[in-house]
Design goal:
Elements lengths: L5 E2 L5 E2 L2 H28 L9 H24 L12 H25 L5 H37 L4 E6 L3 H12 L5 E7 L9 E2 L2 E5 L4 H8 L1 E6 L6 H12 L4 E4 L4 H4 L9 E2 L15 H8 L3 E5 L4 H11 L5 E6 L2 H14 L5 E5 L5 H11 L3 E4 L6 H6 L1 H21 L4 E7 L8 H22 L14 E3 L2 E3 L37 E7 L1 E3 L5 H10 L4 E3 L5 E2 L1 E3 H14 L5 E4 L5 E2 H11 L10 E3 L19 E3 L5 E4 L6 H16 L5 H8 L13
Parallel strand pairs: 3-4, 3-7, 4-6, 7-8, 10-11, 10-13, 11-12, 13-14, 14-17, 17-22, 18-21, 19-24
Antiparallel strand pairs: 1-2, 5-6, 8-9, 15-16, 20-23, 22-26, 25-26
Length: about 700
């Protein structure tokens, strides 16, 4: 409660404990002040009371009551009776010292001017002794609670855990101080580790700086360390990875200070330490995007996010919501996911114009209704089936949801004047060996085709793709409700048999009209739905084994915020037809990832937790690629974001094949994988795909 008074169970008022302590301190200060100046006078006359002249005693007796009252009032103003003494530190000591000096100076001036000049020792000894007694009482309580009481507490409890602090800087010192002050933890800092050899052999808060990073294993064994705190918020990703890799070999529990912003916000607390995540060991600097540029681009726009309840889609919604869109529309088939992100955004952004809609991107009528009603300026298309093994067993569903769903959404965007359409793709689309990857490559081809159609205006080439065959009503074929003419498009006649002159290319033209379609391709996202990390954690919590498909399997990794930052940046760079690619650094072995995760849990791989190699799953390959060889790379203003050169293909032929593929998928054709092979030349299925 914030009230200064509390009501007890009998309905009366109960004085708070700190106020009782404050009254006691006032009485103590009164006695300490009177005693201090009397000692100053007594000392001047060789501790002989009878030798003190009566005029000095009379002056002391007249002035000291006035000074005591004035000092207590002044000390109250300086908050000397409101401190929590168990946490008293340098700032409190400075305030107490300054208060005593001011009060003593005033005492000397006033007694001299108003009453008489006193002996020199009276002023000096009285002031010094007053300062010592006033501050000493307060800091003696801290000494008692932090040294004697904590020592007894550790004796009664289980043996204290030894903690090693990585980083003998400001953050490390603050963490040590908090550990030493807290009587609720059973943690004792035993040593610092720092690469600055000028600090070795010296002490911070009574804790020795033992050595550098190479000495970590030796000092863990010497001191019996059980936990290691990484407290270097300014460390680069590479430095952090190297140090944490050494720490992970010790079997100690690892905690890390999140970042340098903790120092700026004075939030360097043990409670802010987090368990070291696997992405801390990836050794790559996080991707940085120009948030100001993104802010200007998103502000005032109506934005649609399909699959907005998923891991990538929901993070997109969070970041978009913070950039003042005119309206944010979340579209998802899964109501639970959509409800969760809706509640989160409404709590955090109360002025956000938020619309949450349930529906499937496979439903032409529903998609068309959404675009007709809300007219989004920007679309981020994150809706997709992404689980490789599941799609291998249901290839037709991968085509329906990923390919046809993308086509229908892009089709609606084109017809309703959307400015930009951004597809979320994957590195599995490069030389795919599984139907999920092949379906995402088809999605990229859909986007490139749509961009070519948008540039040329050849909407007559767009096929009518829907779930069921055309119905015959009154002798006439009922066409798809997303008819070109119904949407106000002029169809341009094309000569039968003549190849379309459409080109798959990126044209940087500020005067260009029509929808700009782009794709964003990145690797595995740490922490996303379907990521290997949550699965490994569950297996470790269950006591193992941790299942890795192959000892040599490697993947590119990035965090969810990085992935979303790339997607948003792509929206600002887009001119149409591009495939944006993130430079994700070096790929990481999944086996190494699993072993690091086991060590970060304080366990030993192959001893405490076994690792089993289960073999590659259907459609899985040992490594992923970011680009096909023929695509090449072109730099952008962001040195970690590249543009793949578009791969040319016959758009008219592709759109005809797409129509046939859609019809086959809705008929659950058993040969759907073979049909995809013919359309995507780089698709080479790994093993026999199940039918259906």
């Amino acid at each position: 409660m914030n009230n200064s008074k509390k009501t007890d169970i009998r309905g009366g008022l109960r004085l708070q404990h700190w106020k009782v302590i404050a009254v006691g301190l006032m009485l103590y200060d009164a006695a300490a002040i009177a005693f201090s100046y009397f000692i100053g006078l007594w000392l001047r006359f060789d501790f002989r009371y009878t030798d003190i002249p009566s005029e000095y005693l009379h002056s002391y007796a007249r002035f000291i009551p006035i000074y005591i009252v004035a000092s207590i009032v002044f000390f109250s103003y300086m908050r000397m009776y409101r401190g929590i003494w168990r946490f008293a530190g340098f700032h409190e000591l400075l305030r107490y010292t300054a208060s005593s000096l001011i009060a003593s100076t005033a005492h000397g001036i006033l007694i001299t001017v108003l009453i008489r000049r006193m002996p020199f020792s009276y002023y000096i000894v009285g002031a010094v002794l007053q300062m010592i007694l006033v501050a000493g009482m307060r800091f003696s309580y801290r000494f008692y609670t932090q040294v004697l009481v904590k020592k007894d507490t550790h004796t009664e409890q289980s043996p204290a855990k030894k903690v090693m602090i990585i980083g003998a800087g400001a953050a490390g010192r603050t963490v040590v101080r908090e550990l030493q002050q807290s009587d609720k933890t059973n943690l004792v800092p035993c040593c610092f580790i720092d690469d600055n050899d000028n600090k070795w052999g010296r002490y911070i808060e009574g804790v020795p700086v033992a050595g550098g990073r190479e000495d970590i294993p030796g000092f863990v064994e010497k001191y019996g360390v059980e936990e290691i705190y990484f407290c270097i918020p300014t460390a680069s990703a590479a430095e952090k990875r190297e140090i944490l890799n050494i720490c992970s070999e010790t079997g100690c529990r690892l905690l890390s200070l999140p970042g340098i912003y903790q120092l700026a916000n004075e939030e360097v607390l043990v409670s802010r330490l987090k368990s070291v995540a696997v992405d801390d060991l990836l050794g790559r600097e996080p991707i940085k995007v120009d948030m100001q540029e993104i802010f200007q681009y998103l502000k005032g726009k109506t934005i649609l996010v399909t699959g907005g309840g998923g891991s990538i889609g929901s993070e997109l919604c969070r970041q978009i919501a913070g950039h003042e869109p005119k309206q944010l529309i979340i579209f998802d088939i899964y109501e639970n996911n959509a409800y969760e992100i809706e509640q989160e955004l409404r709590r955090k952004y109360q002025n956000l114009n938020l619309v949450v809609l349930i529906g499937s991107v496979r439903d032409s009528r529903r998609i068309n209704q959404v675009f007709e009603t809300y007219r989004p300026d920007i679309v981020y298309h994150a809706a997709a089936h992404k689980h490789v093994p599941l799609m291998e067993h249901s290839p037709n569903e991968a085509i329906k949801n990923n390919v046809i769903g993308t086509y229908k959404t892009a089709y609606a965007a084109l017809m309703h004047g959307t400015q930009r359409f951004v597809l979320i793709s994957t590195d599995k689309a490069v030389n795919p060996t599984n139907i999920m990857g092949a379906s995402k490559r088809l999605c990229e081809m859909v986007i490139q085709s749509m961009d070519a159609i948008s540039k040329s205006g050849r909407t007559d080439l767009l096929p009518f793709v829907h779930a069921h065959k055309d119905k015959v009503i009154n002798g006439q074929t009922a066409r798809d409700p997303m008819d070109h003419k119904a949407a106000g498009w002029e169809e341009k006649p094309s000569e039968k048999g003549i190849r379309s002159e459409l080109k798959i290319e990126s044209v940087k033209n500020k005067d260009r009209t029509g929808t700009q379609f782009v794709a964003v391709r990145f690797g595995n996202v740490l922490g996303s739905n379907g990521s290997v990390i949550p699965l490994f954690k569950k297996e470790i919590e269950a006591g193992g084994p941790v299942c890795v498909t192959h000892k040599e399997i490697t993947r590119y990794f990035m965090s969810i915020p990085e992935a979303v930052g790339l997607v948003l940046q792509a929206g600002t760079y887009a001119w149409g037809g591009e495939i944006f690619v993130l430079d994700m650094g070096e790929p990481v072995k999944i086996d190494t990832l699993a072993r690091n995760l086991i060590r970060l849990s304080g366990l030993k791989p192959d001893e405490d937790i076994k690792i089993e190699y289960t073999g590659l799953r259907p459609g899985e390959k040992l490594y992923e690629e970011k680009l096909m060889a023929e695509e090449g790379l072109k730099k952008t203003d962001n040195e970690l974001i590249y543009i793949g050169k578009p791969v040319p293909f016959d758009v008219e032929e592709f759109l005809k094949q797409l129509e046939e593929l859609a019809e086959a998928s809705y008929e659950n054709n058993a040969d759907i994988v073979k049909m995809v092979e013919k359309i995507v030349p780089t698709f080479h299925p790994a093993g026999e795909n199940p039918k259906g």
